[in-house]
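Quick one, tokens below. Sequence please?
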């Protein structure tokens, strides 16, 4: 399939959408094709549009990616993943889950959080949910670790809830945290990081397999070369990206393994969730 308009979206945090929209426009100019950045519907609908082949290129969390890739038949393939510019990422397509608390809280490490009020962004998130349950599995914590757990709906919402004192802690995608700290300096004064989980494979940009193979190759090649273009490099720098790296399905095997280990691990006793 070669669509008249290449439809592109992001199912990641909304503080990255301006950069993703600019990537969409740059890609259209680079390839000489029409592109549309889809941001007028909730991310859940964007995923459904991707599943149906009505969105062709999407930036998506690694956990829903592996679920889609493992479906029979698979509808998407991993294309590229961002390599962040900060030294902590060591030039690799990885990211972290930072454990964030209020600056004036007594918590100093993950072990201090037993019985605390915990928030996660949503259950299909690797950085906010899957990786935390995996850590609890490694610790042998099978009966619920936190005192009360709520679903906030977004990493940014979790950060606000910590800053306001409504919850005690949350695991936050490190790239989202860095972007939010840069955007809102008051968060730097209100919050601190007491631990880090990871690294984990960086969320991929995925292509729908119904696209013509030659077009898929052109998209991949363009994104891999984006940092070498002056305008492209400027767009990537908006969100702290140094360049894109090629990734394949095997790159996300660690997320598969963590999901298997975490499958039956609750965050809190059943009566404490909600």
């Amino acid at each position: 399939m070669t669509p008249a308009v290449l439809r592109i979206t992001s199912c990641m945090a909304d503080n990255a959408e301006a950069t993703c929209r600019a990537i969409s426009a740059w890609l259209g100019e680079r390839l000489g094709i029409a592109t549309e950045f889809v941001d007028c519907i909730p991310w859940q609908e964007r995923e459904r549009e991707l599943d149906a082949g009505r969105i062709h290129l999407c930036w998506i969390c690694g956990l829903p990616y592996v679920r889609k890739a493992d479906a029979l038949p698979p509808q998407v393939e991993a294309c590229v993943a961002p390599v962040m510019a900060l030294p902590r990422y060591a030039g690799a397509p990885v990211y972290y889950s930072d454990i964030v608390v209020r600056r004036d809280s007594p918590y100093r490490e993950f072990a201090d959080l037993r019985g605390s009020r915990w928030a996660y962004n949503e259950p299909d998130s690797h950085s906010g949910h899957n990786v935390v349950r995996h850590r609890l599995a490694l610790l042998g914590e099978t009966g619920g670790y936190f005192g009360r757990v709520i679903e906030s709906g977004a990493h940014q919402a979790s950060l606000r809830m910590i800053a306001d004192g409504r919850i005690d802690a949350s695991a936050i995608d490190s790239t989202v945290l860095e972007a939010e700290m840069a955007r809102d300096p008051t968060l730097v004064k209100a919050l601190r990081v007491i631990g880090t989980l990871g690294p984990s494979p960086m969320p991929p940009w995925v292509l729908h397999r119904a696209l013509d193979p030659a077009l898929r190759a052109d998209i991949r090649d363009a994104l891999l070369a984006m940092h070498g273009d002056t305008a492209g490099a400027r767009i990537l720098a908006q969100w702290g990206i140094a360049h894109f790296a090629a990734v394949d399905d095997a790159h996300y095997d660690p997320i598969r393994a963590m999901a298997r280990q975490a499958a039956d691990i609750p965050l809190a006793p059943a009566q404490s969730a909600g």
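The chain has ten helices and eleven strands. The chain has a mean pLDDT of 96.
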